[in-house]
Amino acid sequence: MRFRANYITGPLKRVKDRYLFFWSSYKGYVKLDWKRTFKLANDAALGLDIGSAAVKMVALDKSDTGYSASAAGLAEIAVTVDDDSGPQANIITAIRECCENTQTKSKLAVCGVSGPDVAVRDFEFPPLSDEEIEAAVLLEAAQVCPFNAADSAVGYQVMPNGQEKTRGVLVAATNPLVQGKMQLARKAGLKCVLMDVDGLALLNCYNGLSRGHENHPAGRTVAILNVGASHTTLAVMDKNGWPFIRDMTYAGDDIVAQIAALKGQTTEVVRSILSGDSAPEEPDIRDGLEKACLRLITDVGETLRYYVAQSKSPTVDKLLVCGGFALTRGFVELLNSRLGTQAVLWNPFEAVRYGENQPCQETLAKTGPAFAVAAGLAMRSI
User: Fold this and answer.
1) Taking Cα atoms as reference points, which of 260, 246, 266, 270 lies closest to residue 325?
2) Is-contact 109 190, C-beta < 8 A?
């Protein structure tokens, strides 16, 4: 997990289970034991975003002047109706297709988790010793997580706050979710050496690209909205570096299904229209898009208002919209007109250089917003 330099004291410690490893990646503050264990080069691991509709993979290199993308691949996950073993097999096939498309030699990957089986929460305790913090975090996780914390991997980061309190951030994810992602990578021929939370990966990506960049001035509160097929993630980083993450289950597939029902069309036809692949004579569904997005707009608006009230922040300055559904025609414009915060399409690769890999550059220029989580995951390996 990456925070501003003056707020980092060390790695995000693993409390339970051997599957979930959340680390601070700020150079100079973290002991990269996992790199020594696996004998990795600094830029060896791939960012592997395993979604419900597609798999995205990115390879990044870092130098003194910033990041460069050396490979990128996207593969849609085929839909299988009749075969119970189909979904997992199709995901594995998509991961392998991404590996072929990227043509990278690395077999090491950083994966992420999101959804209702993941929780990111602040905690505040009276002054505690290092030995007492772990037990307190586990107790806090049991109270605040909307799932069984006893069957979960839990990690935490203590944050200096200038007060006589123990404050920080805990993360938790159910073991079946974490193990499932690791098994998918393994069956596709990759080794998952690091597990992250998608919302934190988004913030990590923004922070990694914003340092010294004139389009990302310091001291602003920025929210990132990642809209995928089955989950929507809202991640906010305040000016002091504290994260706020909320995962919502209403996402792209739900919007498409509702438009299809409203317009009497199949979901395939609706997807084709929304993506711009359909012919001009196809039926107009703009009013259907607005109606189908109303729940999402309401959820995002309420969450932003809650965040502002709880954090006592004056406002959220900008909403960066990414994810596969963010590429839908008219979607970002709809958010911008209905929310009180300026919403803009965010392609993180506009601030990334490219080598001689022209296919990679073309892929990320066209669909870069869909790769935001994968980019944040890839930055964990630096």
Assistant:
1) 270
2) yes
The confidence band for 114, taking pLDDT boundaries of 50, 70 and 90, is very high
Sequence-distant (≥ 6) Cβ neighbours of residue 129 within 8 angstroms: none
CATH class for domain 5-253+293-379?
alpha beta
DSSP 8-state code for residue 370: G
DSSP state of 117: T
Instruction: Give the position of tokens 């438009």.
Output: 259
Here the tokens at position 167 are 């404050």
DSSP-derived letter for residue 48 is: E
Three-state SS for 283?
coil
pLDDT at 28: 26
> Which of 41, 355, 317, 301 is CA-nearest to residue 206?
317
DSSP code string of 204-243? HHHHHHHTT-TTS-TT--EEEEEE-SS-EEEEEE-TT--E
The fraction of the chain above a pLDDT of 70, given in percent, is: 81
The DSSP secondary structure of 50-105, one letter per residue, reads E-SSEEEEEEEEEETTEEEEEEEEEEEPPP-SS-TTHHHHHHHHHHHHHHHHHT--
Residues 6+ apart with CB under 8 A from 143: none
How far apart are alpha carbons 84 and 89 in whole angstroms?
10
User: What length is written for the chain?
Assistant: 382
Q: How many CA atoms lie within 13 A of 155 on its CB side?
A: 22
Helix (H) or strand (E) segment spanning residue 345? strand 343-345
3-class DSSP state of 301: helix
What does the block give as tokens for 110? 């950083």
Say which residue the tokens 């929304």 belong to: 274
pLDDT digits (tens, 9 = 90+) for 191-213: 999 999 999 999 999 988 876 44
288-305 tens-digit pLDDT:
999 999 999 999 999 999
Q: Where are the alpha helices (DSSP H) in the chain?
A: 33-38, 86-102, 130-144, 175-187, 198-210, 252-263, 267-275, 286-292, 294-311, 331-338, 358-367, 372-379
What is the 8-class DSSP label of residue 313?
Answer: -
Query: What is the rounded radius of gyration, in angstroms, for the C-alpha atoms of the chain?
Result: 20
Angle at 347 between CA 346 and CA 353, to 5 degrees: 145
